[in-house]
Amino acid sequence: MATLDPANSTGSAHGALRGAAIPGAVIRDAAPPRAPGRFRLPLRRRGATAGDAAVRAALAPLLSAHRAAYPDADQAELLRGYAVAERLHRGQLRRSGAPYITHPLAVAMILAGMGMDTTTLVAALLHDTVEDTPFTLGEVRAEFGEEIAVLVDGVTKLDGGRWGERAEAETFRKIVLSAADDLRVLVIKLADRLHNLRTLRFQPEHKRARYAKASHELLVPFAERLGIHVLKREMDDLAFAARSPGAHAATGSAVRAALGDAAGAFGPAILRLRRSLAEHGVHATMRIRPSHLYAVHQSFGGRLTGLRPCEAARLLLVVDGAERDCYIALGAVHAALHPVAGQVRDFIATPKHNMYRSLHTRVISPDGDPFEVIVRSRAMHPVAEYGIVAHIRDAGDDAATADAVAGRRDLVWLSRLLAWQSDAPSADFLDSLRADLAAGNVAAFTPRGEAVALPAGATALDFAYALEPALGDRCIGAVVNGRLAPMSVQVRSGNVVEILTDPAGRPSEDWLEFAVAVPARVRIQQCLALRHAEEAAEAGRRRLVQALAGRHVDLLAAEARGDSLAVARSLGYDEIDEMYGALTTGSLRLDDLVARFVGG
Fold first, then answer.
1. What does the pLDDT read at residue 161?
2. Strand order in the sheet with 475-480
3. CA angle, corner 50, sides to 44 and 53, nearest 5?
4. What residues are paired with 316 via a beta bridge?
C-alpha cells in the first residue's frame, strides 16, 4: 500500500466542523437540479447492492449534515462522488495509517458543517484525485461536469517535478486566480488545510513547524479576509500548537483556570445589562465568548499569571432587531456599565474589509475589571461567523462568480491582489502575498465619500495607487482633511484624502522608502524596472552606433531592414532593446555584437 504525506496533499479533514448550519441564514440550493443520470456510474463501474449499501453507510454522517442545510438536495451526487473517490484512493494510506479516503470525506464534512452546496461537497470528495491518482482533469470533467472540474483544478497543486522551486508560489497564484472565478475554490482549500492541521501530529516535528508557519502566514489570513472566523480560530490554534507547543499548553492552562468561574465573574455585569436592555426596550441574547488561545497568546504572550476571566473572554450580545436596535443596545450597555473612553469601534457604519459588522465597546465590570462587549443583530451574526460562506449560501451561485468579485466591497482586496499578482515573479510572489495578507486595515475616504481600504501604516501614495495605478504614477502630494500633505504622510482611518498629480510625474526610487501597500510597491518596482531597461537599452544602442560608425555601418538602416532584429533573435533575445540593454549590463560583449553586424 502507498503512504501519502498529508502535508504535501491539497486535502485533509477530520470530522465535522464545530457547529451546525449557519443560524438565521436563508438556505437554498445554489444551482438548479441536475438532469437525472448526470452522475450515474458507467455500467462497468457500478457496484453491487452490498457495495451501494457500504457507500451509503460510510457517507451517512455527511448526508445527514448536508440534509440539515439542504433538505431537498440530490444525495445521488454525493454518493456518486464518494464512490469514485473511494475507488481511486483505495490502497492509499494517510500518515496516521487511516485509509486515504478519510481525508476528502473529512474535508467535505467541514464544508457541510458550514452549509456549503452539493457541488462544493462533491468537489471536496474528489479534490485529491487528480493530484494523487491516475484520474485526469478531463475525466473529472467528463464524468462530473465543468463546474466540479473547475473546483478540483483550482485546489490541485502544480507538479513539483515540472515547476521546481516555483511550484509552491505558482500553486498559490493559481489558487488566487481560480478564486477570482469561483470563491468556493478558496473555501475548499481552507477546509483542506484545516483537516491537515488537525492531523498534523502524525508528521515529523520539523514538518509540523514548517507547515504550521505557512498556514499562519498564508491560509489563516485568507480565512480572515473571507470573514470565515469559524475556520480562522481553529486554524490559528492548531498552527499555534504545532509551532509553539509549550506556549500553547501554558496558554490553554491559563485560559481554563481563568474561565473556571466565568459565570460568576461576568454574572453581576450580565444582571445589570439585562435590566438596562429591558429598560431600553431591547431584546437580546447574551453569551460569554471565550477568546481562542492564539488571540490570548498574541495579547499577553508569556504574561499569563493571574489571567482574569475578563481577559480571556468577551460578552456577545445578539440583538433581535434592526441596525438601529444595535445602537440602542450599545446605549443600554453604556448606561449599565461605565465605558472606557475611546474604546468604541463602529463596524456597522464602517464594516471591516470582509464586511464584518458589529459594535465593539470596552466597559468596566462592577468588580472593576475592564472587558469587551460585542453587539450585533441576529442578521449580522451569520456573516460575522461564516463570512463569504453566508453570502454564497444566501445569494446562490452568483456570489462565486467573477462578476460578484468585481462588485463586492468585501472582495476589493482580492481584486487588488489580482491586479498586482501578474507583475510579481515567482521568486517574489509568496513574500509579496504574505505582506499583503498580513497587512492591517485602515478605511480612508475620497472627497466623494468612497471608502478605500489600506494596510496599517499606509501613506497618501498608497492611497493614490489604491484608487488607480496611473494616478499613483503621477502623484506629487495630497490634501488630507483639507490640509496639504506630502505623499509620505501616513493615512489614518476616517481621513478624507484628495490626491494631487502632475501629468509629467513618474515614480522614483525614494518612493519605495514610504510605499507600504504591496500593490503600490509592485507597481513602483515595475515602473522603475521598465525605466532602467529603457535607459540601459538607449545607452547600449549609443555604444553600438559609435562602434559601427567606425566600420561604416549605419545601425538605423540595419534596424529598418530588420537586420538588428535578426541578430537579436540569433543571440536569443526577443527584442532588439533587450540586446542593446545586454551591452550596458555586460552580459553581451560589444566586439562580439559588432562582429555580427559587420560579418552580416
1. 60
2. 483-485, 475-480, 497-501
3. 105
4. 287, 374
SS (H, E, C) 501-559: ECCCCCCCHHHHHCCCCHHHHHHHHHHHHHHHHHHHHHHHHHHHHHHHHCCCCCHHHHH
Average model confidence (pLDDT) for the chain?
83
DSSP SS3 for 483: strand
Residue 515: which of 418, 439, 448 has the closest Cα? Answer: 439
Q: For residue 513, which of 483, 476, 482, 488 has the smallest C-alpha distance?
A: 488
**Strand-strand pairing, 313-319 and 345-346:** unpaired
CA–CA gap between residue 421 and residue 429 (Å, rounded): 7
Could you say which DSSP state residue 17 is in? P
User: Is the C-alpha dihedral spanning 512, 221, 200, 234 positive or negative?
Assistant: positive
Estimate the crossing angle of helix 229-243 against helix 293-300, to 10 degrees: 60
- Cα 559 to chain centroid, rounded: 48
Dist CA 185 CA 104 (whole Å): 14
Residues with Cβ within 8 Å of 391's Cβ and at least 6 positions away in sequence, in order, are: 355, 383, 399, 408, 410
The SS3 of residue 373 is strand
Pairing of β 2-3 and β 92-93: parallel
| CB 231, CB 256: distance < 8 Å | no
Give bridge partners of residue 319 from the DSSP assignment: 284, 377
Give the per-residue SS3 of 269-294.
Answer: HHHHHHHHHHHCCCCEEEEEEECCHH
**Does the structure show a pLDDT above 70 at 374?**
yes
Q: Which secondary structure element, helix H or strand E, spans residue 376, and what is its range?
A: strand 370-377
Q: Grade residue 46 by pLDDT with cuts at 50, 70 and 90.
A: very low
Residue showing cell 475589571: 369
**Residue for grid cell 510572489:** 429
Radius of gyration of the chain (CA): 29
Secondary structure of 59-124 as H, E, C letters: HHHHHHHHHHHCCCCCHHHHHHHHHHHHHHHCCEECCCCCECCHHHHHHHHHHHHCCCCHHHHHHH
The residue to which cell 464534512 is assigned: 109
Determine the pLDDT at residue 71: 87
Alpha-carbon gap, residue 447 to 128, rounded angstroms: 49
Q: 301: phi > 0 → left, psi -120 to 50 → alpha, else beta; which?
A: left
Of 591, 571, 473, nearest to 525 by C-alpha is: 473
Q: What is the dihedral of CA 237, 239, 242, 243, to 10 degrees?
A: -110
Is the whole model's pTM more than 0.85, yes or no? no
Q: Are 420 and 518 in contact (CB under 8 A)?
A: yes
CB 435 within 8 A of CB 518: yes
Picking from 17, 7, 8, the residue whose alpha carbon sits closest to that of residue 200 is: 7
- The residues annotated as belonging to the active site are 131-132
Half-sphere exposure of residue 518: CA atoms within 13 angstroms, side-chain side: 25
Residue 270: burial class (beta carbons within 10 Å; 0-12, 13-18, 19+): middle
Query: Long-range contacts made by residues 344-348, C-beta under 8 angstroms, separation at least 24?
Result: 348/323, 348/376, 348/380
pLDDT at 48: 39
